[in-house]
Amino acid sequence: MSEPELSRRTFILATGSVALVALSAKVAGALPTQNRDISPLVLSSDLYASPLPQRLVLAVAVGKKYDSSSPAKIEIQAPESSETKVLDTKLYRSGLPQGRGVYVSEPVLPTAGIWKARLITRGEKVPFVLQVQSTPIGPSVGTLASKSASPTPSETMGVNPICTREPPCALHKTSLDTVIGTGKPVAVLFATPALCQSQYCGPVLNELLKIYKKYPEITFVHVEIYKSNRGVELSPTVEAWGIESEPWFFTVDGAGTVVGRLDGAFGREEMVKQLNALQSN
């Protein structure tokens, strides 16, 4: 099977922001023009200054196609610093689209600003940049999750459809405002299978549907990103949670505190890891 084509639109959206693409373009070129050019695609959309490790996720393009066939490391350099650090990555393929595995590392990013970075793979060092914000945009680990409602069949909150998956999934029976902070752990997936720009949302939801029944103690809720199939206006729940990309996966303990989060792209293995931690919390 051939590797999936990488469109220019997908490339731009994968980096998380137009500004970041512009900065990356100055370093490495916004889109590969030669057949075998290597390009790192930053899928993390909410990196922020913190003394704690956080998840950095990349996809890789070779030419105009995704490629996850080779091991990789990441070299990072803080703003206004000459020191560099090389990080190992873990390659995840299970539960992700064919040929579109992702590379995950856990750097410590204590300083806000534009970090220089290099993808080390196939004997090459490919420069790119990371935009690290001073504070997170979405809920971070250790903060309280929003107790806003989410659409259900009986109360759609103006969202139509409440699930763009075909057939619709069964994770819309419970509104988040009835379970967050009530003593029961909750797992929330924000994803729009029909409209997802990165095309990771559908596979992520399908993987979750394969495993959620193994965790009867946890309440699972899927929330669509948009109010309609026009893909313009965000759903009220997405606005309340303050997220600006898709997909996102949050685990929330019984007290309503966020204890885990994944964004950009993730498969079964990373979700299982977070669900196991939530269940034993």
From TrEMBL:
Name the UniProt record assigns to this protein: Unannotated protein
Organism lineage string: unclassified sequences, metagenomes, ecological metagenomes
Domain Thioredoxin: 139-280
Species per Swiss-Prot/TrEMBL record: freshwater metagenome
InterPro entries (alphabetical): TAT_signal (IPR006311), Thioredoxin-like_sf (IPR036249), Thioredoxin_domain (IPR013766)
